Amino acid sequence: MNSRDPPSKILLLVITHLAHSFPLTNDYLFNIFKKYGSIKKILIFERGKANKAFVEYYDVKHSIAARQDMLGKSIANTGDRLQIHFSRLKSLDLEVVDHSRGTDYTYVHAHTEEPQLQKTNSQKSSPTYHSQSDLRNVEIEGLLDSDSDEEFSYGIQEILSQKPSRMLYVGNIDERITSRMIYNVFNRFGNVEALLYRKKTKSALIQFENINHANIAKEILNNVMFFNSQIRVLYHPAEILQPTTQFDEYIMSNGTKHKIGLLTKTVVFYGMHDFIELQEMIRLVGKIQGTLNNLQTLIEIKLEYQSIKITMADVFEVLKVIAVFSEYEYKGQKIKLEIKQ
């Protein structure tokens, strides 16, 4: 668990400086976080100086909104501080975690304005665990143990002082990166109107079509490994973008708009007919998941063109592929690729 994890439906809350006498419950957290979207499950861990809890939403856009609004705030007005991170867990299994207080919130849509709430508490006096449950418990405990308060606190004041903008600042860019590669990546998570790459300072300013697109790109790409550098993405006050030195590179939108989604490990290529050649091209850029004899790939025909789905080793390898092969010319034609959702 670290700050580079991409957005997920599950948030990990770390509540520091909370009075031991404060009655922290699942319902208390539910009433705070329900305004951002429908909540599926909440699981509280009491961990000494800090309380930790998972909040699982049905939709990732709701977890993004909750994190953006609640990061660094107090939930009890007692001097406590809330730190929030996206979790690596795919789902919460409330039945297999020791010493926890978990609640399963299931909405039953009725004709009333307030949906009915069904709750199942998982706390048991003498739970019996099977081997799979034990492994799951170790997995969750390990994730919690790896979450340092220093990491969660890093840059919180800087983040809180920012004002949302449709312009983003990107820093700590790998020196091998070009302005077109930056554009290709950020344009996948929001419609980019213009980009100014200040190569000498290894930074860029990116102007999006609207604040929502800038917010999505910031949430997904902040602190990710982009080639050999962990980039930093922050809001930046709007300004007119124009080169000021001979090293600056300016790019305007090429009009290409993509369906905005999450960053996953799988990329689909369209219009490619030679799978072996494509595979070798990709291997020059990033690592494909699996071995040469056991690749998780799929070739299928759709209408009159061929699509090839390739699973990369991780999402950071996918960013390399997007940066290099978006709008790439192959035998006189541009390659079309999408991130598989």
Note down, in words, how this protein is organized.
The protein contains 9 helices and 21 strands. It has helices spanning 26-33, 60-70, 131-145, 149-153, 156-160, 179-186, 211-221, 275-283, 315-325; strands spanning 10-16, 39-47, 50-57, 81-86, 101-108, 116-121, 167-171, 192-198, 203-208, 225-226, 229-230, 232-235, 248-252, 266-270, 290-291, 294-295, 297-302, 305-311, 329-330, 333-334, 336-339. The strands form 6 sheets. Strands 4-1-3-2-5-6 form a 6-stranded antiparallel β-sheet. It has a 5-stranded antiparallel β-sheet with strand order 12-7-9-8-13, with helices on one face. The chain is an alpha+beta fold and 341 residues long. A hairpin with a 2-residue loop joins strand 19 (329-330) and strand 20 (333-334).
SSE pattern, N- to C-terminal = EHEEHEEEHHHEHEEHEEEEEHEEEEHEEE
What radius of gyration results from the CA coordinates?
Answer: 22 Å
What is the strand content? 25-35%
Largest sheet: 6 strands, antiparallel
Question: In which order are the strands of the major sheet placed?
Answer: 4-1-3-2-5-6
Proportion in helices:
10-25%
Low-confidence stretches: 96-100, 108-156, 291-304
Average pLDDT, to the nearest integer?
A: 77
- How many beta-strand elements? 21
Instruction: Please tally the helical runs, counting DSSP H or I stretches of 4 or more residues.
Output: 9
Structural class call reads: alpha+beta
- Amino- and carboxy-terminal Cα gap: 22 Å
Globular, elongated, flat, extended or rod-shaped: what is the shape? globular
